[in-house]
Amino acid sequence: MAILIQTLISGAAAGAVYALIALGFTLIYKTTRIINLAQGDLAILGAYISLTFVRIGLPVPLALLAGIICTGIVTALIERVALRPLYRRPLAIPILCTIGIAVTLESVMQVVWGSLPLALPAMASSTPWNIGGVAITPEQVVIFAAAIVVAVILLVLVDSTRLGRAMRGTAADAEVVSLFGVNTDLTYLASFAIGGLLAGIAGVLIVPTIGLLPSRGLDLSIFGFSAAVLGGLGSLPGAILGGVLIAILVNLMQVYVSPSYASGVTYVLMGIVLLIRVRGILGDDLEAVRQV
Amino acid sequence: MSFLTPSRRFAAFVAGAALLVVVVQLTLAGPDLLIVDEACVYAIAALGLNVIFGMTGLLSVAQAALMGIGGYTLTLMVARHVGMLPALALACVAAAAVSALTGVIGGRIRSHYFILISLALAEGIILVLVNDMQLTGGTNGVALAASPTVFGLALGTPDGFAYVAVPLVFAIWYLTDCLRASRFGIALLAISTDEYLAAVAGIATNRYRVLATVVGGAYAGFAGGLLTIADSYIGPQNFGLDTGILLLLIVVLAGAGSNAGTVVAALILTYLAHGLLTLTVVGELIYGLAIVILIIVAPDGLAGLGRLARRGARTAWLRLTARGQPA
Amino acid sequence: MLFESSGIKRGLAGMMAVAGIVATACGSTSGNTGGSADTTPITVGIVMPYTGDESYYGKFADNAWEMAMAKYGSSINGHPIQLVKADSKCSPTDAVTATRDVLARKPVAIMAPACSADTLAMLPITTAAKVPLVSENLAEAVTQQGSAYVWVVNPNDGVTNKFFGSWLVQQGYSHIGIIHDTTSYGQGNSSTLASALTAAGKAPVVNASYTFSATDYSGQILSLKKANVDAAYLEGYDLQAGNLVKQAKSLGLSVPIFLPTIAADDTFAQTAGDAADGVTFVTSFIPGMSPAATQIANDTKSKYGYSANMDSVGIYEQAVAIIQGLKAAGPTATSDQLNTAIGKLSISGLPMGQLSFKSDGEINNPLVVVGTRKNGQAQQVAVLTGTL
Predict the structure, then answer these.
(1) Does B80 map to a domain?
(2) Chains that contact A by 3+ CB pairs under 8 Å?
């Protein structure tokens, strides 16, 4: 029984991070319909930037915050420079561009920080408390709490603020919404910037556990997409649900069925969702479904 | 191409293949020859991806993983004393069958979101290849049990392989051109341009999409088998997302579903990604940046540039001979 | 008209981008260009991971050659040693390509990559080309392929774990759990330890595996907890082992942790952080164990900034073996002759003791030592076999 609880707890902590990645990814998709394949790399970039701030002497919490903000800025810059010229082209082109951006980001990280593994200090210690045979680390608690706070803020933002309404409107119909005085360019920019911030937060939370290497970005991306698809492309609560579900399922598979093939759960789930119920669990966006 | 009749086209392909084989053997040696061999393999796989993405509009990163299916099928068959050619054929079939999975599942989603299902397939295949110690040897890879020879040429050596690979590329290029001009190709063009109208015109869009993935998968299986023969070794590291993205970028660089562009782009990108840039740290960065710049600035890729060059040359020729009206 | 000019402008920009790419492509190719028909330089090949997660081995290799050449010379009778490098990326298929690349430049010897699976993949090719492959790999399979052209400067895991396994049982552990990776190195390491433990009467109660690219080991760690082990043997490469140990501590695995030589590496220590303190490991090199060992530890730290460990010292001894072999065989020796010369070497004063080879390529007089990590340093605990 203790092992089961342990598994669920580890799953919940990892799931919180996947949920953040999925949230950023979904927000961008929701507003611009672009699939941002660089989301995971942006998260790792955030961790690297934070590490640099730590190295120049900032206290850890400040360094992490600075890293996160920089990631948002970088993402906004990328949108402005690389993606904005592509909005009038067929949708495949911006998606391809995000692939190019992912490749570029990974190589930038390799050039600037080297390809050897580095260590980012965590926000809390990883020495566990032993509660009834189950090990919970302060770090896991912090990750979970941070993710909840961020998710709530984001949901409130999208639901109630003007910007949030603008984002939802742009997703539905960009041309009509501009007639109402919404600056679509600025809305797109904002969605990318916020997506970048979310990625940065996810990065600094998970990197102490998985290690800081340029190649980690892709793995994160895949979990994020899986979570977003499972939860429902275009649904923010769905992204959160998907993230936690996937992490718990993978962990359960790892402990009880097969440690090696556990991550295969993500791929199989994606396949099943896209085959049976394209809208996922909570999604209502039918954009992805063919109309023919 | 109005001055190239079908028979002249065929002759041009044969002549081109022969010429290039001679040029390659005479001018290149050692490491450069290895790159050309690799480029030939990637060109074949990229031509298959051209059918899937360039002609049908299905954005896929799974082509490299499908190469892996082909390569491992070949290795396993050869280990069981199956002949090299039948093993290659089986490699094509296996890869085509797995590729059809994406076509079937992707039947319900829009083409540009196809990338998600292809991503899941690619990673799933790698997961199995890396973990199944019994069948595939995991990350350690497997040596090919027998090395084939053709007319006394050892295919496991760089120059022996080049003798066979270069003509194969031309043959497959020609085949793909024929495919594009065929009913199948025209149907694919219709589907990728406007699905509504294609369906209205009576084209079975779903079936053709699945067929496209099957055909593209067969190319990948063939390329994977060839790569295994060239190396006399196979390991999962060759078939990951890096290679999948490389193949996709080859097709994008080629532009507009062009086969000629695909072959040329394969050569350029292989040389860049695996040849020149291996020991320079900044090399990867140039590769990534160049791709982003190219996508933004030259959307029609090499084909577009080729078209522009041809148009410019034609205008210059007309002006020179004073045959046409000044623009 | 507006259409056309913007199209042409874009096209020109595109052409310039492509030209830029092609221009950079028309630079020199990778690695050293070999001498032309000139016989003066002696070409030695290096196949090592220079990029990727294990790229510190590439760094170790470059520095090792620097140190070895400084001490033993960088030319033989006026013929300079010329190094040609290729990147194996700790991936067998890349190692195969890298080997063909290097062989095209006709080296007289090749320094094998640090990853055992790579060496195993390369071995048939280098053996067919009759070029000696000098390695520091720990997998015993390397010398069991029947090749006459491979020389290993470290004791392999079959030898090491035979002593380590019986030592573990002597210390009183009876329920030992093993977690290992599925690379050739990991599999060889864990299976030799498992057989040693079984021979001592205490077969491991759990033997779980993970793939090289995995990052989450909770499944494997929890299976050890479930089995109530009294000792855990965690194997991996530096980064993986570091994460493994850290996650084990986070999941509350409180039994003594044992590792292979990897525990003495800086990358492991950095990755594992606090969790690295108190682990015990088996190795052939610990800094304070002999004057020569202390010397190289100080040199490595002062010149390059990292701690010497069995890998970096093994790579150093690879270079020394090649240089001394060349001295014995002469600057114009063929690779075959060099191979014979290396087989007959007997070098003393090295950090890991006397170096000489058996006919199958294994080292004579293996040195096996147990160490532990205390306060960020590796300290010797016991010598299991061999002379310092």
Answers:
(1) yes
(2) B, C
Cβ–Cβ gap B117/A103 under 8 Å: no
Looking at beta carbons, which residues of chain A come within 8 Å of C250? 126-128, 135, 137, 139
C23 touches B: beta carbon within 8 Å: no
Q: Dig out the tokens for A280 from the structure.
A: 């996922």
CA angle B70, B141, B117 (to 5 degrees): 45
Residue of B nearest to C103 (CA): B30
CA distance C35 to A198: 54
Q: Determine contact: A1 vs chain C, CB below 8 A.
A: no
Chain A residues touching residue B123 (CB < 8 angstroms):
222, 266-267
- Range of the structural domain that residue B134 is part of: 6-240
Q: Do B276 and C104 touch (CB under 8 A)?
A: no
Nearest by CB: A274 against B116, B124, B282: B116
For Cα atoms A7, A263, A71, give the angle at the middle one, nearest 5 degrees: 90
Q: How far is residue C39's CA from residue B65's CA, in Å, rounded to a whole number? A: 45
Q: Sign of torsion, CA B229 B234 B237 B241?
A: positive
pLDDT tens string C245-256: 999 998 889 999
What's the mean per-residue pLDDT of chain C? 87
The answer to whether residue B41 sits within a structural domain is yes
Higher pLDDT, A11 or C341: C341
Q: Is residue B33 part of a domain?
A: yes
Q: Please report, for chain C, the start and end positions of each structural domain, with discontinuous segments joined by +.
A: 42-155+292-365, 157-283
Nearest CA in chain C to A133: C252
Q: How many CB pairs under 8 A join B and C?
A: 125
Which of A46, A172, A186 is CA-nearest to residue A120?
A46
Q: Does domain C157-283 have CATH number 3.40.50.2300?
A: yes
Name every chain C residue with its beta carbon within 8 A of the beta carbon of A129.
none
For chain A, domain boundaries: 16-217
Q: What is the ipTM of this complex?
A: 0.86
Q: Look up residue A157 and give its amino acid.
A: L
Collect all residues of chain B within an 8 Å Cβ-Cβ radius of residue A268.
120, 124
SS3 C372: strand
Quick check: is B132 in a domain?
yes
Domain count within chain B: 1
Of the listed ranges A199-213, B84-98, C36-50, the least confidently predicted one is: C36-50
Interval B227-282: pLDDT, tens: 999 888 999 988 988 899 889 889 988 887 889 899 999 998 888 777 655 556 67
CATH assignment of C42-155+292-365, given 3.40.309.10, 3.40.50.2300, 3.90.78.10, 3.40.50.720?
A: 3.40.50.2300
